[in-house]
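Worked Example 4.2. Consider the chain below.
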Amino acid sequence: MDIATTDDLQEQASIGKAIMESRPEVYTTEVVDDIYGIIRSYGVPDGLSEDETFYITLYNYWRYGFVTKEVFFFDLFHKKHDEKETYVSNMNKLNYTRHLNKREKEYLLADKYETYQILKEFYGRELIKVSQKPGNDENGDYSIEGSDQFRDFFGRHSEFVVKPIGLATSIGVRKCRTCDYGNDPDPALRTLLKETAEIQSRYRWARGSGIIAEEVIRQGEALACLHPASVNSIRITTVRTDDGIHFFYPVIRIGKGGNFLCSRSSGSIVAGIDPETGTVLTDGYTDKNEYYVCHPNTGIRIKGFRVPKWREVCSLAVEAAMRFEDLGYIGWDFAYTDDEKWIIVEGNENAGFVGQVAYQKGLLKEFTDLIQWKSDKKYWWIGYYPEK
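Applying the procedure from the previous section yields the following structure tokens:
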């Protein structure tokens, strides 16, 4: 399949429509509905119909690898081909992570409990895993591994965080309280597993079943002041090259609107950090094209904010990255606790290029210069989808 390069939106829409019609196995009713849902959440650009917008997003996906949200928050409707090519799109990113990471070792980060086992001393909190596997329990449906650990955990923590196994981008993550389940761990576990299974079933790419339960992070005032309701975090992407570990465009992520979650997918604010000093260098941006000089809830000015104990979190990032010699690209999330220490929230083997949102520019050239390699694929999807 050859995809013409054009900056004309009507031509892009026509090409996108032809691609959709040629790939009915990809564009199921569920997938199409999801894309239209994202488009409606952003709003149709002026001068375009909803259907034209839909087909233009498909064009940008197959031609460059941009997913629907990126088409909006990078405002690709108003960018020409040469500028689009300066970005690392979400899908083209896979070609780079697979160049830098040994795929057979990515489970060490994809499985959050596996990561915890390797780096437990850097987590500063308790974390357990409860998984469901085919088998026979009292209902004849499945077996549960980790229920005893959950009962012990439940008895020690009046509130905790639940994360679905096998999902990403904060999907299904929520804070729970034991009192909401009558302080009884057994109905709590049944409810949490049922709710999580329903969430996982909506995503074809979900891997595994069950939950991770984590002790709540008690955030230090130095970062809590930005937005107390969320655990505001630092994302440091480590890149391993022949001359050591490099930090590629670290950012701070700040929650807003009283939301407990602090991630790009939940509408949080991101801003770029000077890797040398820990000073925030940019104003704040979100994936919804929102722009903030000051935090909308606390009024704190974002640019110029100083991250506490920056050298310490940098040292922690390097030490953590060194534990994974077969993974050259890792996105680390760090939190600052109420005892003034940095801890790991999680590591991500397929982390997004968040710096492109914070700095409002493409970073492909800087990244390829750093790793001294550039993908030579004509289209990102070669090897992922069959050619038509």
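The CA atoms of residues 42 and 288 lie 7 Å apart. The mean pLDDT is 93. Compare this with Example 4.1 before moving on.
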